[in-house]
């Protein structure tokens, strides 16, 4: 028996099964993680039914009327549940999203299952998503339009939906004027201020130039006054219209349509309507700006910032990594110094990422950025332009962080190119540079691209260094806009990884933020998986291409 076991181990078969088992367990764990994140995150956008019930905190207490959405359920010990009057060693309790934070102070509360009575799902309960103070749960009582109150009509809900749609259209006009048109004017006024300051520093502030600047300022001011008048009209139009809703405790509140994002009646919606609403919310999450301390709305600025930073990083890291790998493998004399450099490059991959952030802050931001400001942006001082964390420095920091991956992958690709191909090219009269450019590097393209995509995948998930060199909780404007030079590398930006950290650990409303943490994490995981699958596909395609060329 012992000999059979030794023979079996000598064949190597146990190690094959061990590797297969490890790979299978890893795949199952990754799939389970993704499924968990998807269920917890994507379920948040489904319009859940709203329950109305009487809640008895104690058997003999006065009931409290509540409206809310069932978010979570758990069974806990009496000690963990706190002061519990109902009998039993364990108690079941529900986490209810009651909304109406401006009235009751909290969005969520735990209620004991034993204290819930008279539970129902009335179809006339409305859920109003607001730009401030979260959701409102209640019953629509009246609509106020230009001082006129409309109540009790059969088409009250249809009129309410119409007014919400009209107010959102008006709000989009307001947002366009404020962000695009007024933003462009403010940008132009700042450029004029800097230009005047530069004239003063250069001793060229002549009356003629000053007159020219003032004429442009007057033009900007005239446009600004017209836009502010238009904004005042739009705000007045929105402020004239509001609605009255009755809460669970019977209290009536008045809400202006200006503060309403959307409204729906989930208990009266069918599956088709809920599905349409679900995809509308999902699109908002991907395409809109965040609101309510990042716990509501979308994450488009974070997606945009992550993708743009990774693209700039890839443009910077690829040439440097490939050139370094070619030099180390093809041109450098293979001796102790080259081996030491190669060891140092490999060890760079193990340096904690936050160390790169400290380096980026000290070298790129304070030293290099400060020097650039002194040389080219003197008129802006003491306010820094490049001497402050921004998109450029974040991209450069991550380029330094990921360059070892590109170097190692490219070196591995160069080592797999047969020596005979190099010698054949040289024998046909090509120089070493031509051989490298036309023959060796194309055959190494699959390895280079694999290294690049792996570097991109790592950079997309980094957070610690970015906290020091450019990422912020909420960026007021994107790094690309219609103002020259269109790409503003000095601006701060949002990032998916930091967004997860901020919403998950810094949000004042933890329960409201939790689903968005899962949703954002799922989006980040999908992005990284997509990049890795793309790397594998490109690598395999190029490998087959040059394998066929070799055989031909």
Question: Which terms would index this structure?
Answer:
alpha+beta, SH3 type barrels, MetI-like fold, 3 domains, 6-stranded antiparallel beta sheet, 5-stranded antiparallel beta sheet
Task: Describe it.
The structure is a single chain. The chain has 552 residues and is of the alpha+beta class. Helices cover 60% and strands 14% of the residues. The chain has 17 helices and 13 strands. The mean pLDDT is 85.
CATH level 4 superfamily of the largest domain: MetI-like
DSSP strand content: 5-15%
Uncertain runs with pLDDT below 50, 5 residues or more? none
- Overall CATH architecture of the largest domain: Orthogonal Bundle
SSE string, helices as H and strands as E: HHEEHEHEEEEEHHEEEHEEHHHHHHHHHH
Mean pLDDT: 85
Count the domains: 3
| The CATH top-level class label of the largest domain | Mainly Alpha
State the share of residues found in helices, binned by percent: 55-70%
Largest sheet: 6 strands, antiparallel
